[in-house]
Amino acid sequence: QWSGEYRFQYTDGPFLHLLERATIVRDADGQAVRFVGSLMDITARTQLQDQLCRSQKMEAFGQLAGGVAHDFNNFLTTILGYSDLLLHELAVTGRLAGHITEIRKAAGRASALASQLLAFSRKHPLEARVVEVNALLVNLERSLFRLLGENITVECHLHRAKEGVHVKVDPGQLTQIILNLAVNARDAMADGGRLTLATTSINVGEGTPRPPGCQENLPPGNYIGLSVSDNGSGMNNEVKAHLFEPFFTTKHGGSGSGLGLATSYGIVRQSGGHLCVESELGRGTTVTIYLPQAAPPVASAFKRPNKKMPTGTETILVLEDDVSVRHIAVRVLRSLGYDVLEAATGEHAQRLVEDRGAQKIDLLLTDMVMPEMSGRHFADWLEGTSPTTKVIFISGYLQESLHPADRQDQETFFLPKPFDPEQLATKVRETLDVGSARERRAARSSGSGCAA
Questions:
Q1: pLDDT tens digit sequence for 5-30
Q2: Rounded to whole angstroms, how far apart are CA atoms 373 and 137?
Q3: Where would I find the beta strands (DSSP E) of 115-188?
Q4: CATH for 315-443?
């Protein structure tokens, strides 16, 4: 018996995978008289196997990237926190202030890199809000001209709707995706060319065909498509097969990190969308982002920004196993007037709460992932002991932090790492004030009955 697999290439490029199974038929004397076999087209099965391998490899890279970036964000929180304390508490000026400012800027750039890694792993806490896509593209136009150079023209074909074209996405991340795609297009048009930005609206039903360039079907619903097209060198099938793999790049001389499209893929999928690529060697590439269409936002009132960090006198328990992050958080909160307790483990925090007896703890500020007892488990325990205590979860990424049931609870607050003193102060005050407002409303409600 014989079994083997073959790969043949069509003249126009695609491959055909065949499985052969055969056996030799012999007569009574054992002489071979016939060869019987079959050929089966297993192209679809091979493609599914390749897709599964790529998915598993990207998942493994994502877990590694998420873990590294989570620890990295702890270091950045410490760097940002102490830099701000030096600048504001000690009123440092002159050359020394300039040096500290450069340290802070470097930490900010490192934070952006950590955000890219977390976005690729799909564990980045995106700050999603409703965005008008056409307006975002128009605002980007001038930046694109500077980025692309004089030998590349930009065209826009925007889908116009009465109330605009809206999606719910992190606008900063979407802007970064568009800029990354524009840079890739520029590099593919070394001798100049045309970059085309387009938006479209599509409705996907049960029987709607898969959009061109998509590796999987879109769930039914209304989508906004945002495409970036170039008429550059294009890509062959081998390059397209590795397109979303981290650290894969066709750029030479170390000019590309290989994280651009992998990061974009993670951000788009985390936002509930799909990233589809069409490309033909010598004819150019079109990358289309499909995001669920959102309803137009309700106009919000303008809030005047605060110049000083908000203060308070409430009691706060800080539970954080990373000593540097815990120390900077405690120092900042105490400088703002709060009475602060600190613990490195859940067991230590439990002893602190029990030792205080009936003394109230107004707020728990806790990391999510810690050895032995997680922040969520401690918060659940504390709820039974002190049900009025508000909770802020802090973490390097959101997906590990909040259980779906927790996300529906309006009492749950979240502060992503890295954070600076101002972000910490604002989130703490916001959480305490929301709780106080609810208690006042409840008190008014309980005391407003009608007399008989």
A1: 899 888 877 789 999 999 989 888 88
A2: 46
A3: 129-132, 152-157, 166-169
A4: 3.40.50.2300
